[in-house]
Amino acid sequence: MPSDMQSRVDSMFRMDRTWAWGFVIVLWAVLLFVYFSVSGYIEDDTARIVLGIAGLLVGIFNTAAIGAMISHYAHDKNFIYELDIKHLDANR
C-alpha cells in the first residue's frame, strides 16, 4: 500500500476515533445534566436512586460499545478506510 494511502487511512481513523470519544464525553455530560436537572423534582429517594443507576448503566454500556467499535475499526481500518478513500476519489 502506498504511504500516501496509509497516511490517509490513519488520518481518517484518528478523526473517527476523536469524534467517537467526543460523543462519549458529550453523552456523559448530558446524562449528568439530566440527572441533576430532574432529581430536584423527584421526591422519592428510591426513584432518584433508580434514575441514577439507570443513567449510569446507559453511560457504561454506551461507553463500552463505543470502545469496542473503535477497537474493531482499529483492527480492520485498512479495509474500511481504503474502500471509503477509493469511493471519495472516484466521486471527485
For the sheet with most strands, the description reads: none
Relative helix content: over 70%
Shape: elongated
Q: How many β-strand stretches?
A: 0
Q: Tell me the β content.
A: under 5%
**Average predicted confidence as pLDDT:** 93
SSE order in H/E notation?
A: HHH
CA radius of gyration is: 19 Å
Number of domains: 1
List segments where confidence is low: pLDDT < 50 over at least 5 consecutive residues: none
- Give me the number of helical elements: 3
Distance between the termini: 21 Å
Structural class: mainly alpha
Q: Would you write up a description of this structure?
A:
The chain is mainly α and 92 residues long. It has one domain. The chain has helices spanning 3-38, 45-75, 77-91. The radius of gyration is 19 Å and the shape is elongated. It starts with a helix and ends with a helix. The mean pLDDT is 93. Keywords: Membrane, Transmembrane, Transmembrane helix.
Write the SSE topology.
Elements lengths: L2 H36 L6 H31 L1 H15 L1
Summarize the structure.
The chain is mostly helical and 92 residues long.
Question: What are the key terms here?
Answer:
92 residues; mainly alpha; elongated; transmembrane helix; membrane; transmembrane
